[in-house]
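Any chance you could type out a protein's amino acid sequence plus the matching backbone structure tokens because I've never seen that pairing?

——
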Amino acid sequence: MLYRGGMRVGIALAFLVIVGWAQAPAKLPQSELDSFEKVWTTIRNSHWEAKPGGLDWDAIHAEFRPRVERAATPEQARAITQEMLARLQQTHFGIVPAAVYSAAYEAPDSTTTSSGVTGIDLRVLDGDAVVTSVDPGSPAEYAGVRPGWIIASIGGISIKPLIKAAQSGPSNKSSNLQELYLTRSLLARLTEPSANGRETIFIDGSGKSIPLKLELAKPRGQLATLGNLPASPVWFEDRALKTSGEAFVEYLHFNEFLDIPRLMPAFQKSVQACLPKASTACHGLIIDLRGNPGGIGAMAMGMAGFLVDQPNQKLGTMYMRDATLNFVVNPRADVYTGPVAILIDATSASTSEIFAGGLQDLHRARVFGAHSAAAALPSVFERLPNGDGFQYAVANYISQGGKPLEGLGVTPDEEVRLTRKGLLAGHDDVIDAAIRWIETTQAAAPAKRTAK
């Protein structure tokens, strides 16, 4: 769980590659040494464990400080500090170079950064980058792109070899972070400024190559801000999915746990549409958290209050150095008690994992899809003396079932993966599985209205 944007902010760290050492200056700037000390001291003082990562942090300082002092360039000093952070073996710890931090994380508004989108979402399926959805009214839709198409190349660069190289690298088998990073990296290739108007080659359902030049458009949703971090577009969609006869399943999907003033009322309205007093035809809820990297953790508690009718329940517990925070769920005046399905995959992280895992532990929702990202630590950003950005986690999170989500994530009750065949046929296999379960469950136990 990130205070801003979940893994959406943190994932950029994975792709910062330092290459080509510059000519060594006469002396390493003092700001580099000050920055190292800031990083080391912050972890010593703010990490939730007295021994961060089980390490002797004083010994870590004795090992790495001399190496930073001997560094010939700021780039080398930064790489050494990154190596120190890697010893923790935890996500949400990293350094963003000053130029990247200024451009990507301190833009005053969306017009100063590459905030355009093609309208494509994708996942890696069987070694290919496959389009999983196309936003209505987007450049991709106007160009005729369809779910199930393979993205073969972008700007003359073949995508399949990149995927193969990424998947052959080292990974933590208990975590899906590698898949999260890979997905975000491929999406970034479609939306980086130099990609605007470049040729992208797709392969359609018949195997035909389709060359297209996709322009970039304004992202869907409305911009939301949090603290000093840049504005982020937040969108929410809901629709009724027809089942049998007049029955339907209410489907909710949103991209981040942000923008409380707009997102919470929208969530409430959709849930209340399924209460018997509003409709007897609603057979259940599907909450789609695929692609949702997290955001404001407290929103998970607020949303769960519309679904849990028993008091004194909690999604889990956050442990900080000197405090403990229980994610307590407070039932709302009207609580929906019918079937709830939550959809996740490797791009579901942070607050998404807290929400899905917590309701799963409470036996209030059934989870469908693929294993989540296993990246749930709350973190913040700070500027270092040398201008770099420093991201660090400030707490650990244990689910109500007693498991740390960090490194383990949420395991679906029913594992269902998207298939290219299904997408080409206009089906989402994960949604279909959730609907089947809801229909079976609804037939056995109809929803009721619960009031406090």
Summary: The radius of gyration is 23 Å. The longest helix spans residues 30-46. Confidence is low (pLDDT under 50) at residues 1-25, 103-113, 170-175, 446-452.
